[in-house]
TrEMBL record:
GO terms for molecular function: 5'-3' RNA exonuclease activity; RNA binding. Transmembrane segments: none annotated. This is 5-3 exoribonuclease 1. It comes from Gigaspora margarita. GO terms for biological process: nuclear-transcribed mRNA catabolic process; rRNA catabolic process. Pfam families: XRN_M, XRN_N.
C-alpha cells in the first residue's frame, strides 16, 4: 500500500516536462531492460477483483499467469526475470495488515479476500501453479529458456518489493537496466535510494486482464530533478555548512515522506499529502538546512539535532485552525496574516491532553523516534529486527518532539515470524478457516481471545497482540 496519494503527488510535482513519466500502450516499449522484476501483489488482487462474482481458483490462477506471460512478452528483458510474491512481513507492517484484513472480512463473499496472505492454502496452491507455469515456459518458450529466472514465493520472508530491491542492491553492475512492475509507492522510494542504479518502475492505474496502457517512471530522471531542486540551496550566501551530496538529499527526502504516514508508523495528525503536509515538510527542510550541522539521515543514523529544528518549525501549524493546505497556512503565519486563525490556547492544551488519553506521551515520543530509525534500517537494507513495531494508534504531537535526549537507538536481532504465526497476527475471527486446522479454534482461547474482537469500531482500532503470550499459546499446539 505504501503512502496514500504519493504516486499522484510525485507525478504532479516532478513530471512537468514529461521526462520522468512516460505513457505507453500495451505491446510498445522503447527500450528492453536487462532485468525485469514483477511484484505480484497488485496482479493477484487485481485479477481476483475482476473475477470475484464468478470465483473459481483455476480461472484465477490461469488469469494471473496469463498476465505474467503478457508482461514478459511485452517487456522482453535481456537477462533476468524475477517474480516475487509477498512473504511474511516485519511485525511493524502487521498492524496495518491486521487492520486491512478486519476491514476486508465479509461473511457474504464467496471468496475470502484474506486468503491472499502468506501461509494460507490459497497461496500455497497459487505458488505451486506459478512454479509449474514457469517450468513449462522455460521448457517450451525460447524467450524464457535463454534467461535467468528467479521465483520468490510466499514462503520466502519479506514483502515482494523489498525482496526485489534487496536483489538489485546486491547487484555489482551499476550499468544494468532494471525495470520493476508494481503499484506500491514503496517501490519508488526504495528504488530512489539505489541512486547509482538505473531503475525504472512500470505500472498501470488498474490491473485487469484487459490492461492496455502503462506508465513508466524513470527514477534516474527523478533523481536529477531532486538534484536540481536541492542543489540551489548551496548556490546562495546562506548555504548549509556541509557539502552537497545527492545521496544524502535522497535519503532525507525519503525520510520526510514518513511524516505523512506509511505502513509502519502513523503519520502526524491530519498531516496528509492532500493537505500539502509533504510539501510543507520539504519547504521547512530547505529553510532550516543552512542552520544545521548535517543531514537528517547521517549515514544510516538519525541526526536528532537536525530533526528537532524541522519539528520546531513544523509544529507552528498545530496552534492554528486548519485550512486544509498546510503550506499556505505556514506562509500566512510567517507573514503574520490575519487570515491565519490561532486556536484558543486553553482549549488547545485541553484537546492535546485528550489526544493522549490512551497513550503515555513520553513513551509514544520515544517509540516514534525509534520508529523513524527502524524505517531507515528497513529502507537501506540493514534491517535486523523483524519483530519491532510501533505500539501506538497515533503519532505524538509535533510540538512534543523537542529535546529528544535519546541515547543511541538499538534494536534486538530478531527473525521473521513463521507463516502460521503471521496468520494469527493478522487474521480476524471470521477468517479463522484460513488457519491450519490445529489453530482454527485458538482465537477463542481465553488467554488470547481479547486480541480477536468479533466487532470493531468504525476506525478499526484493534488491540495490539502480545507476541510472547500468543507464541506461548501456539507452542502448546505444535
Amino acid at each position: 500500500m505504501g503512502i496514500q496519494g504519493f504516486e499522484r503527488w510525485i507525478k504532479d510535482r516532478y513530471s512537468k516536462n514529461n521526462k520522468f513519466v512516460e505513457h505507453i500502450k500495451k505491446g510498445f516499449i522503447k527500450e528492453n531492460p536487462d532485468n525485469f522484476y514483477i511484484d505480484m501483489n497488485g496482479i493477484i488482487h487485481g485479477i481476483i477483483n475482476e473475477n470475484l462474482k464468478t470465483y473459481n481458483n483455476d480461472i484465477i490462477f490461469n488469469a494471473i499467469c496469463g498476465y505474467i506471460d503478457d508482461l514478459i512478452f511485452m517487456i522482453d528483458p535481456n537477462k533476468l526475470i524475477f517474480i516475487a510474491i509477498d512473504g511474511v512481513a516485519p511485525r511493524a507492517k502487521m498492524n496495518e495488515q491486521r487492520k486491512r484484513r478486519f476491514k476486508n472480512a465479509n461473511a457474504n463473499n464467496k471468496f475470502d479476500r484474506n486468503s491472499v496472505t502468506p501461509g494460507t492454502k490459497f497461496m500455497k496452491d497459487l505458488s505451486e501453479y506459478i512454479k509449474e507455469f514457469i517450468s513449462n515456459k522455460i521448457q517450451n518458450d525460447d524467450d524464457w529458456g535463454t534467461k535467468k529466472i528467479i521465483y520468490s514465493g510466499h514462503d520466502v520472508p519479506g514483502e515482494g518489493e523489498y525482496k526485489i530491491l534487496e536483489y538489485i542492491r546486491r547487484s555489482e553492475l551499476d550499468s544494468l537496466k532494471h525495470l520493476i512492475f508494481g503499484k506500491d509507492s514503496d517501490i519508488i522510494l526504495l528504488g530512489l535510494l539505489q541512486y547509482k542504479k538505473n531503475i525504472k518502475v512500470i505500472c498501470t492505474e488498474q490491473i485487469t486482464s484487459k490492461t492496455k496502457e502503462f506508465e513508466i517512471k524513470a527514477l534516474p530522471i527523478l533523481r536529477e530533478d531532486l538534484k536540481e531542486e536541492f542543489k540551489k540551496l548551496w548556490d546562495t550566501n546562506s548555504r548549509p555548512p556541509f557539502e552537497f551530496d545527492i545521496g544524502s538529499i535522497i535519503k532525507d527526502f525519503v525520510l520526510l515522506t514518513f511524516f505523512v504516514g506509511n505502513d509502519f508508523i502513523t503519520g502526524f495528525q491530519k498531516f496528509y499529502i492532500k493537505y500539502k503536509g509533504l510539501d510543507l515538510s520539504i519547504h521547512i527542510y530547505k529553510e532550516v538546512l543552512k542552520d544545521c550541522d548535517g543531514y537528517i539521515n547521517d549515514e544510516g543514523k538519525l541526526n536528532l539535532k537536525t530533526l528537532e529544528k524541522i519539528f520546531a518549525k513544523l509544529c507552528i501549524i498545530e496552534k492554528y485552525e486548519n485550512n486544509e493546505n498546510y503550506l499556505e497556512l505556514y506562509k500566512k503565519i510567517q507573514k503574520n496574516s490575519t487570515e491565519a486563525t490561532k486556536k484558543n490556547e486553553a482549549e488547545f492544551q485541553k484537546w492535546k491532553s485528550n489526544y493522549y488519553r490512551d497513550h503515555h506521551r513520553e513513551s509514544l515520543i520515544q517509540s516514534y523516534i525509534k520508529g523513524l530509525q527502524w524505517i531507515i534500517s528497513y529502507y537501506n537494507g540493514t534491517l535486523k529486527s523483524c519483530r519491532w513495531f510501533y505500539p501506538g494508534h497515533r503519532s505524538p504531537m509535533i510540538s512534543d518532539l523537542q529535546n529528544l535526549n535519546m541515547s543511541e537507538i538499538n534494536f534486538d536481532v530478531e527473525d521473521y515470524y513463521k507463516p502460521f504465526e503471521h496468520l494469527m497476527f493478522v487474521l480476524p475471527p471470521i477468517s479463522k478457516d484460513l488457519l491450519p486446522k490445529a489453530f482454527q479454534n485458538l482465537m477463542n482461547d481465553f488467554r488470547i481471545e481479547k486480541f480477536y474482537p468479533e466487532t470493531t469500531k468504525k476506525n478499526y482500532i484493534l488491540p495490539f497482540i502480545d507476541d510472547e503470550l500468543l507464541l506461548s499459546v501456539l507452542e502448546c499446539e505444535y
